[in-house]
Design brief:
With 615 residues, this protein is mainly β. The protein has one domain: Maltoporin, Chain A (Beta Barrel), CATH 2.40.170. Helix content is 7%, strand content 57%. The strands form six sheets. The protein has a 22-stranded antiparallel barrel. It has a five-stranded mixed beta sheet with strand order 3-8-9-6-7. The longest helix has 18 residues, at 3-20.
Length: 615
């Protein structure tokens, strides 16, 4: 059976199941979900024209998803790769754009590395999170330079009934993990916190042994992370919101593929240590029709490895004011000042940006629209204007939505001034983009749905390496486009099913395919409660048609097709009593031998057992 037949059969089966199956209450809750990140104004999900997915704490617990990048990989239009095991470099692509094009915030703290704008995805746990909001498509108006591809906002659960949870699990590759989380409120103070410590013996990051050394040593990983958030009501109108996060990690690594390296790739002396600190204080005033907030956030990252130490710091001062003219019209104004600092050895560089933006949001009788505009005044590159428009027409049984927006990305301080690899180029100019999407959503009954969308984007002046490994602006346009299909329902009254399929075409300025971005990705998830105590959840990811560059060969690196793969995960949870739950997980159930990045190893079949105590 060829690939077209396989995808046709899977897609037809998924659409039939989603269209003609009984309905669930879960979707009704999703439609009523209030989203803040899309426009800065609390808005029901059903009134947002942009492409938004919301992952809840319940979703994460059902599928036992431990890390943020794994949660994002379950979303339509999102793919991810890893350069080895736990703690190693990885990236998440939103609609064909990498981590430096996605603004990522945890409790309002932007965690893109200030020196290269990327995200250390592999260190980000999901424990203690209440929701994750994923915005796909250009979000530069709300989030600035790092949001050409989209934005991700994760929020710690705070307030409500007092709850404490502790988890311990053991598993393959010498994994040992302890997690604690808490939430609750007392008097006028609400709080939420999460602590994780993990130690993993790991496996060799290198997928190939050196010619004269067939042994592959394990590359271990250790990490401690802390996250907490406190909200205090000062009086009826004023409140304060404080958030803090910390990560300290150590990762054993191997040498990257390099035709000129004179050391074995499997190298026990290679390492990468990563530390991060972040905080944000937000003061809120909420009147009857006018609300405003002022916030200050600071984030520091430090990467230490055999090639040197990079430090980055970001300080952001923000203001937002929202005026409710009526139930059908709301107006937001905002301003940000962002100061970034990059330190490598004895050299320190910085850049600042001042921005102002406005959002008008309209809603009336099933028609919702948003008009937004922004002006950035960058210290190095001057003034850039961006805008975004979106609309949603809701006709009850189906809805049509669409967005179009522009964006820009200022070169990172590392791209401008890198001294470690001498690739910096102070003459770089910002990248600019334009793109949008158009989608239609069908609802079967009151609660089941299926949605299809077409998306596209173009980036000009893309920053790439030249033959001398120096950053330069390329000529021509880099283009991405594709189709997303997603849906959910309940089968036979007990089996909750969700799925999505993405077809992606992402090409560089020379009309060549971008590496490590699958053309076809299909995600399926199923959960069911066997009885009051036993629940089962499973997921499947099918990835087809991916290419990578062979960096072990001289420049220009030849392209290589990666093997297609299918990953199946299965987990069961058994409620031993009111407060204790036993969990068994099997990852890569089929023991698939695959690579998401050429010559970097991935885990085979893995088993994990754990106990969760809630009180």
């Amino acid at each position: 059976m060829n690939k077209k037949t396989v995808y046709g059969s899977i897609g037809l089966g998924l659409m039939v199941a989603l269209t003609f199956s009984p309905v669930s209450s879960a979707l009704a809750e999703e439609i009523d979900e209030i989203v803040v990140s899309a426009t800065g104004i609390p808005t029901p999900l059903a009134q947002i024209g942009a492409s938004v997915d919301v992952i809840t704490a319940e979703d994460l617990e059902r599928q036992q998803i431990t890390y943020l990048q794994d949660a994002l990989a379950t979303v339509a239009g999102v793919s991810a790769y890893s350069s080895g095991g736990p703690g190693t470099k990885s990236n998440v692509f939103l609609r064909g754009t990498g981590g430096e094009y996605t603004a990522v915030l945890v409790d309002g703290i932007q965690i893109n590395n200030p020196y290269d704008q990327n995200v250390n995805w592999t260190h980000l746990p999901t424990h203690g999170l209440e929701t994750i909001e994923i915005l796909r498509g250009s979000q530069s108006v709300m989030y600035g330079s790092e949001a050409i591809g989209g934005a991700v906002n994760a929020y710690t659960a705070v307030g409500g009934d007092t709850k404490f949870k502790a988890m311990a699990d053991l598993g393959s590759f010498g994994t040992q993990r302890l997690v604690g989380s808490a939430r609750g409120e007392r008097n006028r103070i609400a709080y939420g916190a999460s602590v994780e410590t993990v130690s993993i013996d790991g496996f060799s990051i290198s997928d190939i042994a050196d010619a004269d050394d067939n042994s592959l040593e394990d590359d271990g990983y250790e990490k401690t992370s802390v996250r907490f958030r406190v909200k205090a009501d000062i009086n009826r109108d004023f409140s304060a919101d404080f958030a803090y996060r910390m990560i300290a990690s150590e990762t054993d690594t191997d040498v990257d593929p390099n035709p000129f390296a004179n050391v074995p790739r499997d190298n026990p002396s290679s390492y990468e240590d990563f530390d991060a600190l972040g905080m944000r204080l937000k003061l809120n005033y909420a009147g009857d029709r006018f609300s405003q907030s002022v916030s200050y956030g600071s984030a520091e990252d430090e990467n230490r490895s055999g090639s040197g130490t990079n430090k980055g710091e970001r300080n952001v001062l923000s203001y937002r004011g929202t005026l409710d003219f009526s139930d059908s019209m709301k107006f937001l104004i905002g301003a940000d000042r962002d100061l970034e600092t990059y330190t490598a050895g004895a050299n320190e560089y910085e850049a600042s940006n001042l921005a102002g933006y406005t959002v008008i949001q309209l809603h009336n009788d099933g028609l919702s629209a948003t008009i937004a505009a922004r002006r950035d005044d960058h210290e190095e590159f001057g003034i850039f204007d961006t805008y975004r428009v979106s609309a949603m027409v809701d006709l009850e049984t189906f809805a049509v939505r669409g967005t179009y927006g522009t964006g820009f990305r200022a070169p990172s301080l590392n791209e401008l001034f890198d001294v470690v690899y001498n690739s910096g180029n102070p003459d770089l100019q910002p990248e600019e983009s334009a793109g949008g999407d158009l989608g239609i959503e069908f609802r079967v009954g009151d609660q089941s749905k299926i949605e299809a969308a077409y998306f596209f984007s173009t980036i000009t002046d893309l920053i790439v390496f030249d033959s001398n490994f120096r950053n330069v602006n390329s000529d021509g346009d880099s283009k991405s486009s594709g189709i997303e299909i997603r849906g959910e329902t309940v089968l036979l009254g007990d089996y909750a099913v969700s799925g999505n399929y993405t077809y992606l075409i992402s090409k560089d300025v020379n009309d060549n395919r971008q590496i490590r971005q699958p053309r076809h990705t299909l995600n399926l998830a199923l959960t069911t409660d066997i009885n009051e105590r036993l629940s089962i959840a499973g997921s499947m990811r099918i990835v087809r048609d991916t290419i990578d560059s062979d960096f072990s060969q001289p420049w220009p690196y030849p392209k290589v097709a990666l093997e297609d793969y299918t990953l199946v995960n299965l987990n069961t949870a058994y409620q031993l009593n009111d407060g204790i739950k036993a969990i068994v997980q099997v990852e890569n159930l089929l023991d698939e031998d695959y690579e998401s990045a050429l010559d970097f190893a991935t885990p085979g079949r893995a088993f994990y057992v754990g106990v969760t105590s809630s009180f």
